[in-house]
Amino acid sequence: MRFDIVTLFPDCFSSVFNSGLLGRALSKQIAQVNLVNPRDFTNDKHRKVDDEPYGGGVGMLMKPEPIFAAVESLPILPRRDVILMSPQGQTINQSLLRYLAGNYEQLVVICGHYEGVDERVLNLVTREVSLGDFILTGGEIPAMALVNGVVRLLPGTVGKLESLQAESFEDGLLDFPQYTRPANFRGWRVPDVLLSGNHAKIAQWRYQQQIEKTRLRRPDMLKVWEERQGSREDED
Asked: Alpha helix (H) ranges present in the chain?
């Protein structure tokens, strides 16, 4: 998959995209990242990419011309989505990441700044995406999260497919508690069932722990899961 990231601060991506699982995936060419700076598409000596909003108001807006020129300079692959990182967009969740990973071969990601972008930029955009209901100084951190979440779902990034299938959110529940050695650390013991070797009991315990953890931490998620379970029972 190809990612084209339109950003005023391309340098801030280097350490993230060269480290860990993501760095290895890029080095194996499971995905390709191309960074594009709108300043390179300006025509004035100051490389100006922002201006005051019409009608007054505080702050500055990103101008449409450099963003359009940056996006239009890119190749167009057959299955392409143009995403604006915006607090007004659809919140990133695992379902969205799976959809993007499975349906596109090119994601163009526009990182906003200042008070946002000129509304006419939305004529370029096929999807607005948000990291959550809060404001950051720019779209770079949300863009990193989006790329990370999509790339790790691409075949070859994670060694074992089971690792992806057993994670939080994949089945509508939070993940179960996990432990490693030592079995007793400062008086906190690993649950006996995990040491029993009885895989059926372990699977049952983990399933019940998922439900209980979701009940305590994300009752909203549990409600959706219970409704889905009820629908499946009705179908049966």
From this structure: 14-17, 20-27, 64-72, 94-103, 140-151, 161-165, 199-217, 219-235
The whole-number average pLDDT for the span 188-206 is 96
Residues 77/51, Cβ–Cβ less than 8 Å = no
Which CATH number is associated with domain 2-151?
Answer: 3.40.1280.10
Rg of the chain, C-alpha, whole Å:
22
pLDDT digit string (tens) for 103-149? Answer: 999 999 999 988 899 999 999 999 999 999 999 999 999 999 999 99
Superfamily of domain 166-235: tRNA(m1g37)methyltransferase, domain 2 (1.10.1270.20)
**Comparing C-alpha atoms, which of 144, 136, 150, 139 is closest to residue 31?**
150
**Residue 164 clears pLDDT 90, i.e. is over it:** no
Peptide bond between residue 182 and the one before it cis (omega within 30 degrees of 0): yes
CA angle 33, 67, 31 (to 5 degrees): 10
Q: Distance between CA 39 and CA 216 in Å, rounded? A: 48
Q: Give the pLDDT confidence of 9-53 residue by residue, as tens digits.
A: 999 999 999 999 999 999 999 999 999 999 999 988 889 999 999
Cite the residue boundaries of each domain of the chain with CATH code 3.40.1280.10: 2-151
What's the chain's length in residues? Answer: 236
